Amino acid sequence: MLQGPDRRNFLVLAIQGLGAVITGALGVPALTYLFSPAKTKNDATWIDVADLAKLPAGEPAEIIFSRKRVDGWKVVTEKTSAWVVKTGETEAFALAPACTHLGCAYHWKQESKEFTCPCHASSFSIDGKVQAGPAPRALDRYESRVVNGKVQVGRVVSSESSGANGGKA
Amino acid sequence: MLRGVLEWLDDRTGIVSGVQHFLDEDIPASSGWHQVFGSIAMFGFLVQAVTGILLALNYAPTAGEAYYSLKYIVMEVTGGRLIRQLHHWGASLMIVIVALHMIQVFIWGGYKKPREATWIVGVVLLLMTLGYGLTGYLLPWDNRAYWGTVVATQISASAPGAGPYIARLMGVVDGAIGSVTFARFYAIHVLLLPPATMALMLLHVFLVRRHGVAPLPGDEALPKKKFYPGQVFKDTLAIFIYFAILYTLAVVARVPLERMADPTDTSYIPRPDWYFLFLFQLLKLFPGSLEMIGSIVLPTLAIIALFAAPFIDRSKMVMVRQRGFAVSLVLLAAAAWGSLTYAAVAGTPKSAQSEYDATLVEPWQHLTPKELIKPDAAAPEFAKLAARTYLKSGCTACHVANGEGGKLGPPLNAIMFRRDRAWLEAHFIEPQKMVPGSTMPPYKFAPPEMAAMLDWLLKLPPD
Ligand code: FES
Fold this sequence. Notes:
Helix content of chain A: 10-25%
CATH topology of the largest domain in chain B: Cytochrome Bc1 Complex, Chain C
Bound molecules: FE2/S2 (inorganic) cluster
CATH class of the largest domain in chain B: Mainly Alpha
Distance between the termini of chain B: 62 Å
Number of strands of chain A: 10
Number of domains of chain A: 2
Strand order of the largest sheet of chain A: 1-10-9-4-3-2
Number of helices of chain B: 20
Structural class of chain B: mainly alpha
Strand order of the largest sheet of chain B: 1-2
Strand content of chain A: 35-45%
CATH architecture of the largest domain in chain A: 3-layer Sandwich
Shape of chain A: elongated
Oligomer: heterodimer
Strand content of chain B: under 5%
Helix content of chain B: 55-70%
CATH superfamily of the largest domain in chain B: Cytochrome Bc1 Complex, Chain C
Largest sheet of chain B: 2 strands, antiparallel
CATH superfamily of the largest domain in chain A: Rieske [2Fe-2S] iron-sulphur domain
Number of helices of chain A: 2
Structural class of chain A: alpha+beta
Order of helices and strands of chain B: HHEHHHHHHHEHHHHHHHHHHH
């Protein structure tokens, strides 16, 4: 049996040790609970958004469509949009509608043939490359394909991770 | 460096010396292991607060959506099941600890003058603990939650005089509970009770410090002990054991989520959580017009007796072995509580409803028969065999299974709650014997097909 200061030191150490074990056993699950992504099954489906034949050539078309999205414990059907650009008789790509700076909706300016963002005046070329302003990277694109004359879009891929349409112009 | 920071902090706020002063408390020589329960209760409250906040961060507090968000927490959020089960079992253990704390104080006679107020605040804290249990029971919004709360609100609504007002306060309209009741229970559970609990706990601890830990005869002659580190170590070790038990329960003992609350489901047998079962059983002892005695009179008397204990017993502190009467009272109450609870448990038949757990339903259970027979369908063999048999026999013409099929016969989803295996088998062989006038033809499946059909039918989920 310990006595005096030894006993005191042992007790203090035991109090701290037991406290640390409890904190860890609660803290680790709490952190994974908060930080790890939910196991949602996001089955990316292809959605028809436009007839390729009806799209204007050399000019983007803003297309509004609805899609299903897993939103926490719900699956919501929501409206969203894409800027679809026809690049040939069997080809097109689709840009995601949010500016890559802080997410404002940008628009096509016919006079200057560029996309401009109303928020902080970023501008992008028709293929999404940054022309001016604070936007850090080219516009994001939807995964897209053309099947039987219909343009279909899938998930949005960041222009940075895909690397497909280059970085800053 | 650290020393400097602490000195600065103490100079400006006094926190450090405050804590030191708190830990430096003198306690009587007789203090020891029997006094750990108050600290455990406080720790238990802390665990409930932490897990409760975590749950709330992923929870939709409205009737209906609450169910889906809890299902999401349990099935899809990493660690969600553990957090939910910690909160669930933490609530149960909290009741146990609060009761043990009270029993200890009661047996030792710690409520006596001048500690009456400490005891009374403690009784209020006990009632608030039960209040958490009552309101929290509704929050999963499954059938268990819904029907258990229906019974609880009916009991309070039957109170003489105040009944209708209590019912209105709980958002009960014409005996039915719904969105308003849910909102009120949620608000009580997370907005009203927690700050009130914290304030009363603070007052409780303040009173303990003001009057000191109750000494026993003979303590005057012995030198006092310090609260820290000796008693703090005992408290911490006890807390650790409590936590180990709670954690084991939370990992091992699965808490089901039954089917979503269905006010039209008249087949449901409601039952309260285990700590209210004795009340539930008590009602059965007072049939008819006497029911009020079990539901209102006795519980009210018990609460009054608890509050009045320090004023009824005005004797001096004595040693525990001289508290025979107090010990017998506790044993008597425990025996009464235990036998009532046992009778309630033994008298509640297991039902398919209470066995069902929505968080264990697998994706294939939602597939239609046509999807099941696809070669690449991810489903167990028996389900595929059942689906082939089902389609070959033309069941689809009259029955809906997972949203597919005709409406002539009853839908097959949730049949697990309406019929058992033996009934279904007999019904296949001779439908008219089980349901007179039925137009269903008999099906004498070969044994493997029959077994597969029954297994699969009993796995068709309710929603
Ligand atoms: S959000 Fe588009 S430029 Fe800032």
